[in-house]
Amino acid sequence: MKCDILTLAGLWNSGPQHWQTHWEQRHPCWTRVAHRDWNNPDRDEWVAELDAAIADCEGRPILVAHSLACMLVAQWAQSCSTLKVAGAFLVAPSDVEAPSYPIDANGFKPIPLERLPFPSIVVASSNDEYVAPDRARAFAQAWGSKLVEIGPAGHINGASGYGAWPEGFAMLDDFCRDLNP
Hints:
The chain is an alpha/beta fold.
């Protein structure tokens, strides 16, 4: 399988109006990493699925994650996998340690707060119902990620009006260009 981009949807998967879905339709060579149970994700199972998807790639892929999948990337980075990725574009990381998180965290706690061993960017909203701005900043700082705060954008998903999200695609394009000058 050839892949440069692996998209990682969050809890409940990304529906037809989500920017990840729009971007995948625009770039059919991108691969959404499948998960067995989008409603009740299990960390260990999901980390293994991500590791297998990375192993299927010919080179080092770029991970494009949303919501809980940002935590998946951080968990995978701690998994001692020998595989490598080129970088990670992390949008609206969910705070699974918050009391208001909508499901059992199923192994995603505690949130890894070690520096990621690859370049990364965190895109955050000032009014995301799944992560407070100070927590998104703390994640970005701990992970060594560049932080981009885009103002009041909800959870940066289809329900928040972020369908094709051309501004986000431009950020990803810039990130990719910086990885491959």
